Amino acid sequence: MMQALGFILDTIIGFFILVLLLRFSLQCARASFNNPLSQFCISFTNWLVRPLRRVIPGLFGLDLATLVAALLVAWVLSLLSAWILQSTGFTLPLSVLLPFTLGLAVIKVMQVELYLLIGSAFVLCILSWTRAYHHPMAGLLNALVAPLLRPLQRVIPPVSGFDLSPLVLILVLQVILYFALPSLQQSLLRAVLL
């Protein structure tokens, strides 16, 4: 029962973190906010971001309140997961629990951002191989992924007109997602248990 609750919480709250990070990433990429996806992100997250903006100023034109909101929501998810884990008998003192769950929240935000970039690169790759490349969403995805693709495109030439740099980017992001982040998570867990 508690595992099902954990899964439901992770799915719902994870989606909200994804929308917050998409909003932040679109802003970082200076993407147009005159499209349905951007408008959805704004209307879905404004209830949390607007009050935080009063307290957290922007930096270099970036809305740090959105990033902090994603981190706070991920921290709440980590605390809820720890509460669910306590039902199995695993407990931590509060002085350890708070920094540990904050560390897990940072890792969760990085994980969701990597999934966002992988998904964007994958869809952009598919769109580039079809006539749908001129679809309005292609411009948004390109704005998200282009800063990461440019260095790869300088090194990897197109093969028979196909740009393979998105595939290389996906591979690099997956290596980070499946090897670097779990290693970071295990280091955090070891630090707590010692």
In one word, what is the shape?
globular
Number of helices: 6
Query: Which structural class do the helices and strands define?
Result: mainly alpha
**Count of extended strands:** 0
Strand content: under 5%
Helix content: over 70%
Give the biggest beta sheet.
Answer: none
Q: Would you list the SSEs in sequence order as H and E?
A: HHHHHH
Radius of gyration: 19 Å
* Quaternary structure of the protein: single chain
Mean pLDDT: 90
Intertermini distance: 30 Å
Query: Number of folding domains?
Result: 1
Low-confidence stretches: none
In short, what is this structure?
It comes from Leeia aquatica. The chain contains 6 helices and no strands.
Which descriptors apply to this entry?
membrane; single chain; 6 helices; mainly alpha; transmembrane; 194 residues; 79% helix
Q: What does the model show?
A:
The protein is mostly helical and 194 residues long. It has one domain. The chain is built from 6 helices and no strands. The chain is globular, with a radius of gyration of 19 Å. Pfam families: CCB3_YggT. Keywords: Membrane, Transmembrane, Transmembrane helix. It comes from Leeia aquatica. This is YggT family protein.
